[in-house]
Amino acid sequence: MALSQLQIRHFRNIETASLTPAGGLNLIYGANGSGKTSVLEAIWYLSLGRSFRTHLAPRVIQHEQPQFTLFGRLEQGDRLGIQRPREGDNDVRINGERPRRLAELAARMPLQLISPESFSLLLDGPKARREFIDWGAFHTDPQFLGVWSRYRRLLKQRNQLLRQPGAARQISVWDTQTAHYGEWLTRLRSNWVNSLNGALKGIMEPFLPDVPIRVSFSQGWDVKTPLEQLLSHNLERDIQLGYTVSGPHKADLRLRVNKLPAQDALSRGQLKLLVCALKIAQGRVLSQQQQRGCLYLVDDLASELDHGRRTLLLEQLQHTGSQVFVTAIEPEQLAMVPWGRKFHVEHGRITEQTD
Ligand SMILES: Nc1ncnc2c1ncn2[C@@H]1O[C@H](COP(=O)(O)OP(=O)(O)OP(=O)(O)O)[C@@H](O)[C@H]1O
């Protein structure tokens, strides 16, 4: 899966740009504030219908402009487009048609973002790690989205009923369904983490040799207890608290080094490498299971990494065989691999550079 064409109009400081990226490594370089991250943000927006920097979509529309437009063509021919006016919603098109769900965009263009903020995967609460697991389950199992949405709806309804006096009997009736979808969701997640663990071993070794990292799936409640039994057992407490305390909505990915949480045992550079290894492993399992890879967006690759680790990361990205977009301030910082294409960004203008 690769973008063979990208057009950006009135997005951040980019007035208009048209890129024909390489199927492999693409370098986007330029001074601070030139618009490099905005290119990655545009690709991300085109896949997910939102930014990774703000939840306020009008912020990404170029100042003084009424809307932005993004267009991408995938190598197998699909055409993706999004237009976003200051007032109103995204107008999304796939091959000229409005999709029923935004998720249809994401399904066509799986992305992994590695940025200086990616540490949050390890440092923040479990939500980011659940999303990380769910990314893989979503892209490899067509049932995932339906099962996940159903569980979320049932959980929301349960939490509403927990706050209604006298609804205990009604909750018990619904709990059979909640448990059914919750257990199903957990199986899909657990399958994904098992596959991920297999791929991670080989990837982690060159990144963090001699660091014994253990990755395990925590499903959100005691594995020995069936979910329906747990919900029934916790009902009184859940009513008192007004929400469902345990279940798949509390799932997490645990990363430990010698029994310590990874974030307490590793340096910042090592944490960045661990995040990179996890994201590269996600893409590898996807391509093994689906014969289609994901696209990697790597913002400010050089930060926190020494020359040897930068080389290693670039080589590992190259080995994925995926399309990769990397930003850097100085192209010389990343001259250790042959780049498919290089783009120079200056005050929002993007030009392809030939050596
Ligand atoms: N809505 C907008 N309209 C116009 N310009 C904007 C808008 N939002 C942000 N900008 C400007 O766009 C520029 C590009 O920002 P971007 O983060 O893409 O740069 P960058 O090249 O990645 O910088 P750095 O190397 O410092 O990370 C910034 O100067 C910013 O002030």
TrEMBL record:
Major location category of this protein: cytoplasm
User: Cellular location of this protein?
Assistant: Cytoplasm
Locate the RecF/RecN/SMC N-terminal domain: which residues?
Answer: 3-335
Matching Pfam families? SMC_N (PF02463)
Where, in this chain's numbering, is ATP bound?
A: 30-37
Name the keywords, alphabetized. ATP-binding, Cytoplasm, DNA damage, DNA repair, DNA replication, DNA-binding, Nucleotide-binding, SOS response
- Protein biosynthesis as a keyword of this entry, yes or no, is no
Q: Which residues cross the membrane?
A: none
The residue stretches assigned to a coiled coil in this entry are none
Keyword Secreted listed? The answer is no
PANTHER family according to UniProt:
DNA REPLICATION AND REPAIR PROTEIN RECF (PTHR32182)
What's the stated role of this polypeptide? The RecF protein is involved in DNA metabolism; it is required for DNA replication and normal SOS inducibility. RecF binds preferentially to single-stranded, linear DNA. It also seems to bind ATP.
Q: Which family does it belong to?
A: Belongs to the RecF family.
**UniProt-recorded name of the protein:** DNA replication and repair protein RecF
**Originating species:** Ferrimonas gelatinilytica
